Amino acid sequence: MPTLTRVNAPDYAQLGPSTPRIFGRSKREARALSSQLMGTKRLSSVSETGPALNFAGLVERVIPLVAELLTTLASTDPLRMSFADIASKTLLDIVETLRADGVSQEAIAAALDLTITGFRAKHRRLLELYREAPTRPGGTRTPTLLERVYGYVDEQARGSEPVTHARIAARFRGIKADTLGGVLRFLIQYGLLSVSGRGSARSYRVVLRRRVKGDTLLDAAVVLYREGPLSVVDLARHLSSTEAAAAQRVATLDAAGRLDRIVGADDVIRYRCRDYHIPLGAPDGFEPALWDHLRLVVRAITKKVRLARLRAMPDDRIGGTTFSFSLPVGHPLHTEVVEFLSRTRLEMESWRERTLAIDPTTVVGAQWQSVSIYTGQMVDDLAEPPRTFAADDSATSER
Q1: Comparing C-alpha atoms, which of 395, 375, 374, 399 is closest to residue 304?
Q2: What is the pLDDT of residue 160?
Q3: 240 CB contacts (<8 Å, ≥6 apart)?
Q4: Are 393 and 301 in contact (CB under 8 A)?
Q5: What is residue 284's DSSP assignment?
Q6: Is the CB of residue 320 less than 8 Å from the CB of residue 390?
Q7: Contact 161/119 with Cβ under 8 angstroms?
Q8: Measured on CA atoms in the order 302, 304, 307, 308, is the torsion positive or negative?
Q9: Phi and psi based region of residue 199 (left: phi greater than 0; alpha: psi -120 to 50; beta: remaining)
Q10: Distance between first and last Cα of the chain
Q11: Which among 56, 282, 355, 381 is least buried, having the fewest CB atoms inside 10 angstroms?
Q12: What is the spatial distance between Cα 25 and Cα 299, in angstroms, rounded to a whole number?
């Protein structure tokens, strides 16, 4: 289980309410982040230390990596696997991030190979679809055809009788036969349905009944930390739960002294969680831990590039280092290297405890910084040792 630590220190996520985006920034957060990183400057296409770097080529190489990540995450829940909206949502996020950076609509339209009229029409349609549409109870996601077919078989086969192919075809008569057949084969392949009989006599049963995880206290703490301040009503919407359940989560967190209360001009009480922590061995928390790791990696790279610090220096405070070692198992150095992640987790747990022990009254007037660290490790079995490489993405060049 990844360990994720959040301590009570300033962070971009605390800038105000936001709506999750595929790249993790709402329009408000993108503006705030851009303002803090860029000030009145604009990143030049040419570094003062040399010719322009081929970031466009890097984008082309990043896209397959992102596609692999999205596919891997989505396929862990095959019923909910849906990619239909990714392209449109990504385009909208790119447009809003560029606009937050001060790029004109005309320049964005040119980059998208659109006329300004065509760009404005497309942008308006995307806003209506993803930002301005009313929120339905339980969220805005439409169930996939996989979910609908599975749900029908699950509902109809509660008794002893399986569901015939004819009944399924009648229920989904608007779906092409080959599409429906492909969906059924997919559900069988993933072990969610079983089939008996052949041809028109085929019938289906549910093999693996899905268990949907309800919202937990950790889910509420994470949402109130990232998206707060939120009212109980807003928290219930984020968690896709009832207001009564959300109110209970808030009461528990408040009783533990973990919440700040903010009363708005509308006299509605809103809450923000001061911190959250997912300790080693926790049964819950993999999703927020993974999200925070990815979010920090992306933001660290983005900040480095925007600041135009495009070389690695020994005294860097922002950046990263990637090393790969080919070592024989059982060698003393292999043991030392492979235990790096375990040692680092324990050290960060210690830093967290020491951070929480700091009394703010003893450092009045001191400047505070949020220092965020991401650590990862991967181990592969090799048929033969490849060459060792090291690549630093950190830098110090100031614009």
Answers
A1: 395
A2: 64
A3: 138, 139, 215
A4: yes
A5: S
A6: no
A7: no
A8: negative
A9: left
A10: 40
A11: 381
A12: 10
**Cα–Cα distance for residue pair 57/61, rounded to 1 Å:** 7
Counting Cβ atoms within 10 Å, is residue 92 exposed (0-12), middle (13-18) or buried (19+)?
A: buried
145-206: CATH class: mainly alpha
Which tokens go with 97? 């991030």
Hey, what are 44's tokens?
Answer: 């030049």
pLDDT in tens, 47-72: 444 556 777 788 888 888 888 888 88
User: What are phi and psi for residue 109, nearest 5 degrees?
Assistant: -60, -40
The letter for the amino acid at 347 is: E
Q: Which helix (H) or strand (E) holds 195?
A: strand 193-196
pLDDT in tens, 307-347: 888 888 888 999 899 998 989 999 999 999 999 999 999 99
pTM here? Answer: 0.68
Place of tokens 């809450």: 271
Q: What residue ranges do the domains of the chain occupy?
A: 145-206, 313-392
